[in-house]
Every structure is written in structure tokens, then in C-alpha cells.
Design brief:
- The protein has 382 residues and is α/β, with parallel strands linked by helices.
- It folds into two domains: 262 residues, Zn peptidases (Aminopeptidase, 3-Layer(aba) Sandwich); 114 residues, Alpha-Beta Plaits, CATH 3.30.70.
- It is 35% helix and 27% strand.
- The chain has an eight-stranded mixed β-sheet with strand order 1-2-4-3-5-16-6-15. Strands 10-12-8-13 form a four-stranded antiparallel β-sheet, covered by helices on one side.
- Strand 3, helix 3 and strand 4 form a beta-alpha-beta unit.
- The protein is elongated, with a radius of gyration of 23 Å.
Amino acid sequence: METRIRETLARVVEWRRYLHRHPEVSYEEKETSAFAASRLESMGWKVRTGVGGYGVVADLDGAAPGKRIALRADMDALPIQDAKTVEYASTVPGIMHACGHDGHTSALLGAAELLAETRSEWNGSIRLLFQPAEEIPPGGAQAMIRDGALEGVDEIYGIHLWSQFPVGTVQTVAGPIMAASDEFRITITGKGGHGGLPHNTIDALSIGSHFVVNVQSVISRNTDPIEPGVISVGSMHAGTTFNVIAEQCTLQGTVRSMSAETRMHLKRRIEEVLDYTCKMFGAEYDLNYIMGYPPVINHPEQTERVREIAGELFGSDAVVTCRPMMAGEDFSYYLERIPGCFLFVGAGNDKITAPHHHPMFDIDERSLEMSVRLLYALATRR
């Protein structure tokens, strides 16, 4: 068995490097989907393509009836220029796998190969979900669910390689582990005019600046300090030159929270702060508030099972209870419907330190072996 695993792991690294060289952004994963589907078919899996877009669903039955366990990997890349000087750097200008999804896809293919080769040794059924479009809401999870990806599934597990956690660790926590991720886009409209005659204008840039400052008080003074919440204005654009007062100001930002109550509180207060700020200066505004992914909330029983299995495989010191983080993930939609657990496998080391969504992002490929072994065990031990 160990020789078989080693052969599979060598292919997993090759697959990951191939996918890293040939990334595709959200909703455009045509070749990545075909790559996964062709390999699954060659392994003997029953494959369905075109699920929720470019999603792939694969099923395999074991030696006897039992639970149906789902394992999920996301496939999409990001519109970022790869700045690494490695032989597997992206060959597609302006696009790279800067979040580890190439590793997720490859690791699940590795687990798929081992599961197919040992199907007489385990009971139940396994379903693999290769999901498109995790990076951009509304995401691929909801579309795959609508196309039946969870029908008949008892539990689901998902792994995320994480460069900010050291390789050799498996990290998760019961309950909320990742945040709800919402977005707002604002256009403030005032009255433009001469920079030397401000009394004849309504300065949209100044009003936008007041909003940016005012909205920070929603977290610091309007929200329970025990409840996690983040409001970040990431983009603000106004004006064309030095001596013209801007008529319009556009802003974009993100809102993160861990509970439904806090999520709706932040949405309401942002709207109120924007309304009052614009009224104070006599400006108009347009607000597009986009509800993104809900929080990722792990189920206690399945989370404890992950911890137990990881401890058996890698030792108790490798298993870490992580703090919830304010990044978002559409794995949340699966966990809203069936029990399961989302977990992190450490992929960083002393040299690989770049965060996710960074041009220098990379993974320690030893994390792929841990992922394959863990995915295989999570499926077969149920």
C-alpha cells in the first residue's frame, strides 16, 4: 500500500505543477474541469460534468452499502500576475493560482486514485466535488447544489492548503471557522466646480472621505466587541485634476462577520451612516450592497472526527485548534445543508511565507501528501 501511495503522490505533484502553469479564473475553468474529469474516468469513477457550470461530480461505490461521504476541491485561479521564478510558474499572463486551488484539485485526484484502487477494502460510497468559481460570489457551490451535487450525501469534508500555517499541521475548529463575506459599492453624487470656489459646490470627494472615517465607528462603537466584525473600504476614486472639485466619488468595500445577527447589524448601520453623511452635506448616493457567502460553520461531531483521524495519521502535536479567520469561503453553503467540516492543512515554511492572493504565493508540496492521506482516511473510515 505504501508503494502505491508513493507512486500516486508523485503524480499529485506533477498534476499540481501542471495546473499551476495553466490557471483559469472563476467561471472559465473549462480545461481544468476537463483535466479532472478525464483522469477520474480513467480511474473508473462515474463522472458527471457541467455541474453548476464547469463543476465535476464523481461517484464510486465500495465493497458494501454504507454512508455516502463527499469530498470537495475548488479549481479556480485569480487575476494576479505570477511573480515567482520557478519552473512551474504560470504561463498565462495576469492569471495565477494564488490561493492553492491547484493543490486542492491535485490532492483530491490523488485521493480519488487511491480510493479507486482500494474500493474492495472500504464500504459505503464516495462523491467527489470539483467546484468552479469559489473566488467570486455568487460562487460555484450554490450552483452545484442546485444541480444535485449533495443529493444522497451524508457528510462533506473540504481541505484548504494554507501558507500562513506551518507544513506538518492540520488546523480546524468546531463552530464558526471563516466569516460571512459581503461587499458594498457606493456612488456619491454632489456638485462639481472650481477648486477656488468651494462654496458653489458639493464636494463628493470630501463627503466620501467623511463616510470612510464615520463608518469605522460602526465596529468600534456600535458593535458588541465580543462579536467579530470587519468593515474595510478598499477602493475610493474621485476627481480628475488638482483644481476641480469632484462631482462624484465611488467607493468599494468588504464586510466580514461571524453571525447572522452581526451580519445584518453591519449592513443596516452602513446604510444609515451613508445616508446621514450624505444628507449632512446635501449629496445624493447609490448603494449596491451585495450579500456574499455566509459564515463557514463546522459541525462538532465531524470536526472531532477530523481531529481524531489527523491525530492518528500525523500525531497529536500536528493537530491544532485554530482561531476563526475573517476570510470567506462558499463551502459554507454545503455545511448549511449537511454535516461536515472544513479544515486547513499547513503549507508554509521558512522560505514560503507569502500570503494568499499574493504574486509570490506558493505552497510547500509536502502539504499535498498530508492532504491526500487525510482525504482518503476521512472518506474510508466512515
